[in-house]
Amino acid sequence: MPCLKAYCILLCIALMAGCTSVSAGFQSNDLHNVRSLLKRNNEPLDAWDRMRKGFQMPNLNTELSKQWLQYYASHPESIKKIAERSSKYLYFVIEEINRRNLPTELALIPFIESAYNPTAISKNKASGLWQFVPKTAQHFNLKQDWWCDERRDPVISTYAALDYLEKLYKTQGNWHLALAAYNCGESTIQKAIAKNKLLGLPTNYSSLKIPEETRNYVPKIQAIKTIIKNPEKFGIELPKVNNSPYFSSVKKNKDIDIEVAAKLAEISLEEFKALNPSYNRPIIKGPYSQTILLPIHTIDTFHNNLKSFKGNLSNWKIYKSKNRETFTSISERFGISETDLRKSNHIKHQQKLTSGQILLIPTDKIKKNSMISNLIEYEIKTGDTLSKIAKDHNTTLNNLIKANKLKNDKIIAGSKIMVPYKKK
């Protein structure tokens, strides 16, 4: 019935907003009624309920599972803390799992791997929500460079992790074995299975001789699953996570500082970094990401503030050093102190020379009395002369020669030089 449907939609909106009373003729017990209605129609009440409805894996009823259940149940604050941290990412992870028709137990993997901390890093250099080691990350085309580490990207790493888990399931034919392979590697599980077959022993997960960490891995997931399935039984109150997206992607076509992006969205720097943890530098460089993630309720604010923004979107310039160039000469060239240059790039005092190193130049640290008030990279065109370039950019030939440490006025079309200039 259309009227009933509209009634339910309005009540659901109120329910998700956390209202205790609703106008337009609704009674105070209507929210209780809509919960009952949703339950009767098998509709998920929230993301946790949606996860429970998607559990498909057979339970692992072993002694280790019981031990880990007892352990986690005796640490309710830790469970609650991880659950709260997961709230930004949980809907997206479950949505992608559902889209692929996979068991939602997979959304529990980051509970064990990273405690749902996208910046977590292990002793063997695994990183991100899903704890990809560098080699496996390369296999799934996750970028790892000076600018960013996509193992920490909550969206891209989730796609890669689920791709990997689907592959493991097809190989192993069993989710418990697939999870074990995710933890210790396919070859380790295959060797353990082959050994048991040779000895005429069972080849199920519990029967394999595998590393201790892996032997405890699936029981840990089973323990968390048991708690999530019935948190009240264990005296654990899970944080509210709506069955709706927390974040969405926003396209960007210019370099932008992380701090500036957070201010435009009117969120804390901590919140911005939690959604965009893959960036290694304070500037998000154009070629390395065409999108940023923002809480859905801030997207209009971000766009409106961006339209009216009058300042610089970035306070950094990017410079690639020349062969055996000194940090002293670079700081002099850009009109900043060597201390600021080193601090901005985490360069130790012992390092005196640099060759082909990418450096960030903090333009807000340029000395006021410096003849260089800005710096741009310019690609030399056919017919250009140093004098013409200097005139076009409101600087002097001497400044141009000094900025690039040129020995003469010979230049080559297609090459690039740094052009210092003062604004008119």
From TrEMBL:
Q: What top-level branch of life does the organism fall under?
A: Bacteria
Question: What residue stretches are annotated with the LysM domain?
Answer: 317-361, 376-419
Q: Tell me its family.
A: Belongs to the transglycosylase Slt family.
Q: Which PROSITE patterns does this UniProt record tie to the protein?
A: LYSM (PS51782), PROKAR_LIPOPROTEIN (PS51257), TRANSGLYCOSYLASE (PS00922)
Q: Does the keyword Protein transport apply?
A: no
Q: Where along the sequence do coiled-coil regions lie?
A: none
- Give the signal peptide, or none: 1-24
Which SUPFAM superfamilies did the record assign? Answer: LysM domain, Lysozyme-like
Is Nucleus among this UniProt entry's keywords? no
**Keywords assigned:** Glycosidase, Hydrolase, Signal
Any Pfam family from its record, for instance, is: SLT
Q: What is its EC number?
A: 3.2.1.-
**Single GO term (MF):** hydrolase activity, acting on glycosyl bonds
Tell me what this protein is called.
Membrane-bound lytic murein transglycosylase D
Q: Name one GO biological process term.
A: peptidoglycan metabolic process
